[in-house]
Design a protein that fits this description.
The structure holds two protein chains of two kinds. Chain A is mainly α. Chain A is built from 14 helices and no strands. By secondary structure, chain B is of the alpha/beta class. The chains are: A mainly alpha, B alpha/beta.
Chain lengths: 311, 509
């Protein structure tokens, strides 16, 4: 049983050292967060593999046996959420819409948090006029009313066609860019605060004494040390981005049909809300569940990653 | 403190100007715009020609270069043809919005006709008769209303150099005093007369140089800009009655209500927005503060869990979807099930209530106060949920924070009963951060809730903004953003100042 012993030995070692394991143990204590993670995983997988899972094409108008378009069909085995006004399968559209909504949320969060972290780290590390200028810009951007501005920007830019992209994808890229431009401030503030407190610690001095340059210190020491709160804020902002994107799309200033998102599905189905109430329910419910789950996960992560809590 | 406020004041001006520059430039250089697609109208008879388009562009003022458009949007364009401007804040009289500004023009001394000439002065702000200093000799055109009483259409200050007196004058003399809209003058024989002026009275000054200057203001020679060698020489013909947003002239709507002053549009929507937003704000504060306090004091109790869960759900809910669900349930669903149903949108009933609706049940007739209330219930509920979720959480954590403080422990150690500790010691301190919330609602109360107003087709400022954006009605969009930007910076400052007032531990650096 040499193998088993070795295993136990290495396991014990891992348990002692692995930060991830501690985090996971703490994370698991938050029951709702575990359920949320499970739900999110299912939704993300379902949306990612939408082409395999979805029973129909999202843009295909279904026809019945006699060849007429299947408009506003009630839920059935074939269309579990029914079809919409031009005969498209609502469930399939929901999956494909989720792909876009989630993809936009992940990309925007990743870019905005990374950019914010780097800008914040630079601002906090160098101080002086660099910090002054960056902080004034952050304050300026934070003062502006967000939704009116997003709407204005989207109204301006949505007509632009991005070269080398299928035309219907342009609006998605533009909306994502706008959300990134107005989304990095939070994490930059977080990062700046962390860096300001880390800057005077001994290990920074040591790194400098060993000849590491400023950017080296930022990349090698500051960012990894300040990563935990950034991860939490990223998780929480995922939900926020989904809401914002869907709000823009709902108002018609976001990602344009025929590319489906949960937001523009809501807007589309709002028009026949009186005859087909159930269809308005699904996309909103999807947004709600995803957002709620991200919030719970962020909440649990915050507790789990808090270095002050030991166990 | 004074230094701090002065510095903040200038910072505020810079922030507002920067944001307006950014938005104005973006709106104006972006593709599309108000005239987009007009050249592509399918029916040839309706399609405007290139000349028509040029006229339209000139009509909207978008033929000017962008920097000039921004400048005239900001401070108006009536100064573009002038060599002198009189800048005075001390005499500032709030001009009537939409009415044309008071202009100074030179009348030909011989004929009395208005002469378009380069070398004349105009008021930049409209100072009214207060600009006439005692001691000036003035010429008055107008009509006599009674013995020694005149109503002035135009007043000109007598030029310093000896110009012959025009013959069509009704009165002339030395100004004795100016009280409100009445000027008392004295003629050479020592006889006093009263001159009444009104908004339409035009004041004419002789050339700016070498003139007894009006007090309390500043004459600026801008002929370097607008003169024959000036930078803006070629645009001097663009001057009109536009007085710019800094002088409360918001321009007129391009698309939503063509030619109507933006101020009228804002006025027609502002009341609705104020009612909706104030209701939602007050209702949610009244609910959020007590439940926040309770769940903070009784942390980890059943109620606390319920409140926290509710807050979590509320903040994760997409508001527009929640609004749609409200409509589905209380309007659509109730109607289906034969229950008294709620109105789905608007501010008042268009025609008398239909049988079966909540309004018919309560016997509400259209246009009454109760009718308005009925229409606000659903949108206010939707907004309140959003605010409630955030604010109750905020109140709870603020309470938790305060309860950990030493002074609360001291109060308990003194043997005070728990209720006194909480109400007198903890609550008053826990409410301090709530001030920020209330103050930051200020821009929102003006700007309305875009999503809520859209879902419930509620004619408020938020929806106006949304509609104006969709139709490229830039003057409306810019006006709303401008007012909102000002409110945001004012609210920020107000929040900071109030903080120091209620919490003496905080000091400005």
């Amino acid at each position: 049983m040499a193998v088993a012993e070795l295993d136990r030995e290495s396991l014990a070692k891992v348990k002692e050292e692995s930060f991830m394991r501690i985090v996971w143990t703490r994370f698991r204590r938050h029951k709702l967060a575990v359920v949320s993670t499970f739900l999110i995983s299912i939704i993300v997988l379902a949306c990612t593999f939408a082409p395999l899972i979805a029973p129909h094409k999202p843009t295909e108008s279904l026809k019945n046996a006699s060849g007429a378009i299947l408009k506003n069909a009630p839920p059935s085995m074939n269309n579990i959420m029914g079809t919409d006004a031009i005969g498209r399968d609502v469930f399939s559209r929901l999956l494909f819409a989720g792909r876009i909504s989630l993809l936009v949320a992940f990309v925007v969060t990743l870019c905005a948090e990374t950019a914010g972290a780097i800008i914040g780290a630079v601002s906090g590390f160098f101080g002086g006029w660099v910090d002054e200028v960056i902080q004034r810009i952050v304050e300026f951007l934070l003062t502006l009313p967000l939704l009116p501005l997003l709407l204005a920007f989207s109204a301006l830019l949505r007509g632009i066609q991005i070269p080398f992209l299928p035309p219907e994808w342009s609006s998605a890229v533009i909306i994502a860019s706008i959300l990134i431009i107005f989304g990095w401030m939070g994490s930059s503030r977080l990062m700046r605060g962390m860096v300001l407190s880390l800057r005077n610690q001994d290990f920074t001095e040591a790194a400098r004494a060993m000849g590491l340059g400023s950017f080296g210190i930022i990349l090698r020491h500051m960012i990894p040390n300040a990563l935990a709160p950034i991860i939490v804020s990223a998780t929480l902002s995922l939900g926020g981005v989904i809401i914002l994107e869907s709000a823009l799309s709902f108002l018609g200033f976001g990602i344009q049909p025929p590319v489906p998102t949960w937001g523009n599905m809501l807007a589309e189905y709002q028009t026949d809300m009186w005859t087909q109430p159930a269809k308005v329910f699904y996309p909103g419910l999807a947004i709600f569940i995803v957002n709620l789950s991200f919030n719970y996960m962020g909440d649990a992560l915050r507790d789990a990653l808090d270095p002050r809590l030991k166990r | 403190m004074t230094n701090y406020l002065i510095r903040r004041f200038f910072q505020m001006i810079i922030v507002v100007l920067l944001s307006t520059v950014a938005i104005y430039v973006l709106l104006n250089i972006a593709p599309g715009g108000p005239l987009a697609g007009m050249r592509n109208i399918g029916d040839r008879r309706n399609r405007p020609s290139e000349a028509d388009m040029a006229r339209l562009r000139a009509y909207l003022g978008i033929d000017k270069p962008i920097f000039l458009r921004y400048l005239t949007w900001l401070i108006g364009d009536d100064w573009l043809g002038a060599d002198w401007v009189y800048v005075s804040l001390g005499n500032y009289r709030s001009p009537k919005i939409g009415a044309s500004g008071v202009q100074l023009e030179i009348r030909d001394p011989n004929t009395g006709d208005k002469v378009p000439q380069w070398n004349y002065a105009r008021f930049w702000v409209d100072p009214g008769p207060a600009i006439l200093n005692p001691g000036y000799t003035i010429w008055v055109w107008g009509e006599q209303t009674a013995s020694r009483q005149f109503r002035a259409d135009a007043i000109q200050v007598k030029p310093a150099t000896g110009t012959a007196r025009p013959e069509d004058l009704i009165a002339f003399g030395k100004v004795l005093n100016v009280v409100g809209q009445t000027i008392t003058i004295e003629d050479a024989g020592g006889v006093h007369s009263t001159i009444t002026v009104n908004e339409a009275t035009r004041y004419t000054f002789p050339e700016g140089e070498g003139l007894p200057r009006p007090e309390g203001g500043l004459w600026l020679n801008i002929s370097g800009l607008t003169g024959s060698n000036g930078l803006l020489r070629q645009y001097s013909g663009f001057n009109s009655d536009n007085r710019g947003i800094l002088r409360m002239d918001f321009g007129w709507s391009w698309k939503l209500a063509v030619g109507q002053p933006v101020t009228d549009l804002l006025k027609s929507r502002l009341g609705n927005t104020l009612i909706l937003m104030t209701t939602a704000t007050v209702v949610s504060l009244i609910i959020a503060i007590p439940i926040g306090i309770y769940s903070g004091v009784h942390q980890y109790s059943g109620v606390d869990y319920a409140v926290t869960t509710f807050a979590f759900f509320g903040s994760a809910m997409p508001v527009f979807w929640f609004g749609l669900m409200l409509i589905l349930l209380f309007s659509h669903g109730f109607k289906q099930w034969g229950l008294p149903y709620m109105p789905t949108g608007g501010t008042v009933l268009v025609r008398e209530a239909t049988v079966g609706s909540m309004e018919a049940l309560l016997n509400v007739s259209k246009g009454t106060f109760v009718d308005r209330i009925m229409h606000i219930v659903l949108p206010a509920t939707m907004l309140s949920l959003l605010y409630l979720a955030g604010w109750s959480r905020y109140m709870r954590s603020s309470m938790l924070e305060v309860l950990r403080q030493d002074y609360v422990r001291t109060a308990r150690a003194k043997g005070l009963i728990e209720r006194v500790v909480i109400i007198k010691h903890a609550l008053r301190n826990a409410l301090i951060p709530i001030i920020t919330i209330v103050v930051f609602q200020l821009p929102g109360i003006f700007g309305g809730a875009i999503l809520t107003e859209t879902v419930f087709s509620y004619p408020g400022i938020g929806r106006l903004y949304f509609e104006a954006l969709g139709q490229s009605d830039w003057p409306v969009v810019m006006s709303i953003l401008f007012i909102q930007a000002i409110l945001v910076v004012v609210a920020t400052l107000l929040g900071d100042v109030l903080y120091t007032v209620v919490d003496p531990r905080i000091r400005f650096k």
